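User: Fold this, then the next.

Assistant: Folding the first:
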Amino acid sequence: VAGPGLFIETWTRGLGQWQMHTEAAGNLHADIIGSPPCLRLRGAAMRNHTGLSRKFESPSVLTARRLRIHRWSAAGPPTAAVGYVWLTNGFVNFSEQYVGGVYRDNGVLCFLSRNRNALGVEVVHSTLLCRPTLGTRYDIDASFSDADADDMMTATINVYIDGQVQATRSVRSVAITFKKINVYNYDNGEASIGGIEVEYDVGATAS
């Protein structure tokens, strides 16, 4: 039976529900700091798209309707690619299995989605949101419309500082179905995430 779902991570229970990839262990360091608690990521898995992940154990298809990331910030070299918070479909292959989310690269906060080129082939699409200031915490709120007949939807992304809108973007994207949340740094640097919320629809049993 289809219905709504809600995942909330506030880090009050530590990292008990999260797994560190074997290629990231010892290179990417994750701990919980501060009050309210915040996940801190330091280092990286030697330029691999691996790190912490939280798997959704569901036999049904999960379709994201909203992704909220609270108190996101990045430090370290401004050109470093850090602070990835992505919904993925298992992450076996980066170019095929990622779904959507945020990261900082070359000093710009970006939203990554999947689009289709003129030949109908799914491709990486990165939307520039803003240039984050070191030490400033951002709230990111991405909502996703119903998919149309071509399995495309509209993603609307808002970036806030203390409740004040800093950027709004709207992009077309392949409808987001997911199995995991992946959190990591790609380059050596530091990022922090205060909380993650995912609203999603629970559909039919996956084949």
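Now the next one, as you asked:
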Amino acid sequence: TVADAFVAAETLALSMLPQWQCRAGDHLPLYDVAVLRCLPLRVDGVKEERQGAGGLFSFIHKTMQEFFIARALLEAARRGDDGPWKRFGRAALQQASLVHEFGVLRLMGNYLCRVDDVDKREAVAQGLLEVVRRSCRRGDGQDGEAHCLPAASLALGALVAGRVPLQGQDLSQVQVPDAYLRGIDAQNISFRGAQMQRCVLEDADLRNA
């Protein structure tokens, strides 16, 4: 079905980070002809893949990959599933440019701005806040797991791009280096002890923050 095809595309998009191409393996579903026709992929070696030799897949355009990554991350945030976010964070550590993945950030922000279902928007926003808070330094003052930092930076950037109200939130001890927070309304947000090195804060309202 088309729904199955989209799920398969999300899995593939995430598995290709930070590379743009991957060789199909045991961690990917077996792509049958119907699914392949639904996906915006270039496919090479399908027959060989079916025989266990592996097949090569790539997205026709980077925007396609960005769309499926954004979709997978937003849906994971809604469900409270941190698996895709961990995968993104670990890939970002391997390739620093992923921290500023503006295509993914823009698509996530557009979704939050335009989604009509208020309950769904709220669930996604709360899930993104949880991703941000997973980056908090532990009670012993030690940093959390490294992969949480780029994931938190992207999640906070998505909240800002999606114009989600954040005034009054307690974001103490969060670690969001390099986050793109242009235009953030940070009035009365507590950033006590937060690590925000190299964050983009142009046009930010930081009164009482």
